[in-house]
Write a structure and sequence with these properties.
Helices cover 74% and strands 3% of the residues. By secondary structure, the protein is mainly alpha-helical. Strand 3 and strand 4 form a beta hairpin.
């Protein structure tokens, strides 16, 4: 595809030489070598993988608990809890959009340390208090800033610390590691709820008596702690990895004399100026607006994963009963992603991210309709061998197996297949088209459409639960998931209809 047809520049997509070189690298490796391509990667890439694991375990524990904590510990209704989550998600996304340019201005290592520090401090307030002013004002809402700092920098670090040949496998590894973290988090989530009870308490020295959900917040804090070690001791400032080798440009102090306070003030001032400059420059780059349109449609598919946190968890507890192993059910997704993503990444290195995203979105959108089918259709399966394996053998359910167990399990299995194709490439696409040195800015602004998705899901989840799956009263879960399925279907339809406008050439990719 020509430069004129794509509406972008060689710089934005890596240039003709890089495209040719990337293709030659891909062609020269065997199938087995595609899995061992990360051998010899710098320690910074492995530190990024480790940080990704602990960050996601910490985030997932907090995210899965939020709605339940707001309802149980703070006494909020479904709609009010949904509004709080929507506000929190919106803050996190808006800050993410801004901090990407900050990352490019102050560096990857410093951004990591700043984000980790904020996450630890704010989680402490969420754990230690149920007073809304403290728990929300000093905990939940500010933690959005810490999480926002860690999002773009993870993607920027993966791109910065991997060669062209390692790129696809590095992003696939990040996604697989993320799902290992989700798997660990889901099991911890169920283990604590089962051990303490859905509304239990546990006395912790110094902290006093904590509810089940505040105990989960405490564990979320503890899982964040190892990240300081990985970043502080194993990440060097100024490391850049190219196909020619590793270069290190040590950071030099620009402000000598005048003391530490003056240096901090001047650094903050210049970082702010650089952030504004980088942020403003992105909107003038050819192809960037097309990239945002691409992400806008893909966002409708991403909405389903927000629903699994904010809608499916309380939905499952209400339909299946308190203490139901909803966390373990979600690990179907994690196990399949862990297996599928590296294989798909190795086999499709030369396939464009756009094609992968479209295929994955088609399959993923279709899978949501599994939950929209009247649940009575799954009763024969629940009474048969499948229900026995899922309910009795795996989940340890006593007595008759609720058909929702089968419906939810089939949904997770199907949606995982589509996710393995499109989700890793969604992040890679943001990184590979970014001009050198602006990876974090591109990744940060790629969250702009997600702002709409998170805000919509946060508000919609509370409304749908109150309307179709209330805490007390008649429930119509199929209608809830039909609404979600129809919204999700916008993703593949839009990506197909607007393909000629938004698709760009990717370095080292065909089509």
């Amino acid at each position: 595809m020509t430069e004129r047809a794509t509406g972008t520049t060689p710089t934005a997509v890596g240039g003709a030489d890089e495209v040719l070189g990337a293709k030659q690298v891909v062609k020269s490796v065997s199938f087995l070598e595609r899995f061992t391509v990360l051998k010899g990667a710098p320690r910074e890439l492995w530190a990024t993988f480790a940080t990704k694991f602990f960050t996601i375990v910490s985030y997932s524990l907090m995210n899965s608990t939020l709605v339940l904590w707001l309802a149980s510990d703070l006494g909020y209704t479904d709609v009010k809890a949904g509004s709080v989550v929507a506000t929190w998600s919106a803050i996190m996304t808006l800050v993410t959009i801004l901090v990407g340019s900050l990352t490019d201005a102050i560096g990857i290592r410093r951004t990591f340390l700043l984000g980790i520090g904020l996450c630890l401090a704010t989680r402490a307030f969420m754990t230690g208090s149920v007073t809304p002013v403290i728990a929300l004002g000093l905990g939940l809402f500010p933690v959005a800033v810490g999480e926002a700092l860690l999002g773009p920098v993870m993607v920027a670090a993966t791109k910065r610390f991997a060669t062209t040949a390692q790129r696809s496998m590095a992003f696939s590894m990040v996604y697989a590691i993320m799902n290992v973290a989700f798997l660990v988090s889901a099991n911890v989530f169920d283990f604590v709820r089962k051990g303490l009870g859905e509304h239990g308490h546990y006395t912790v020295p110094i902290l006093g008596t904590l509810s089940t959900y505040r105990m989960l917040f405490l564990l979320s804090l503890l899982f964040m702690l190892p990240n300081f070690i990985f970043v502080y001791f194993f990440m060097r400032e100024g490391v850049d990895v190219t196909d020619e080798g590793v270069t290190i440009t040590p950071a030099e102090s620009k402000y000598r004399g005048g003391g530490m306070i003056r240096a901090l003030v001047l650094t903050a001032r210049d970082a702010g100026k650089d952030t504004v400059r980088i942020f403003g420059g992105l909107w003038r780059q050819p192809g960037f607006k097309r990239f945002l349109v691409f992400l806008m449609f893909a966002t409708f598919m991403r909405m389903i994963f927000y629903h699994t946190s904010y809608t499916l968890t309380p939905f499952g507890i209400r339909e299946l009963g308190e203490g139901a192993p909803v966390g373990r059910l979600s690990t179907i997704n994690n196990w399949l992603i862990i297996v599928l993503v590296p294989i798909v990444g190795a086999l499709t290195q030369r396939v464009s991210a756009y094609k992968m995203v479209v295929f994955g979105c088609i399959f993923g959108a279709m899978s949501v309709f599994i939950m929209a089918v009247p649940v009575r259709v799954y009763q024969p399966l629940a009474d048969g061998w499948l229900g026995h394996v899922i309910g009795h053998k795996w989940l340890g359910v006593q007595g008759a197996v609720n058909p929702w167990y089968v419906s939810i399990a089939l949904f997770f299995a199907a949606v995982s297949f589509g996710e393995a194709f499109y989700s890793p490439r969604l992040y890679e696409y943001a990184a590979v088209i970014a001009p050198k040195g602006q990876e974090a800015s591109y990744m940060a602004l790629s969250y702009l459409p997600f702002f709409v998705a998170k805000l919509t899901v946060g508000l919609l989840s509370g409304f749908l639960l109150a309307k179709f799956c209330p805490r007390v009263g008649e429930r119509h879960g199929e209608k809830l998931w039909l609404v979600i399925a129809l919204l999700t279907s916008i993703a593949p339809v839009g990506l197909i209809l607007f393909r000629k406008y938004i698709k760009v050439q990717e370095a080292g990719r065909e089509g």
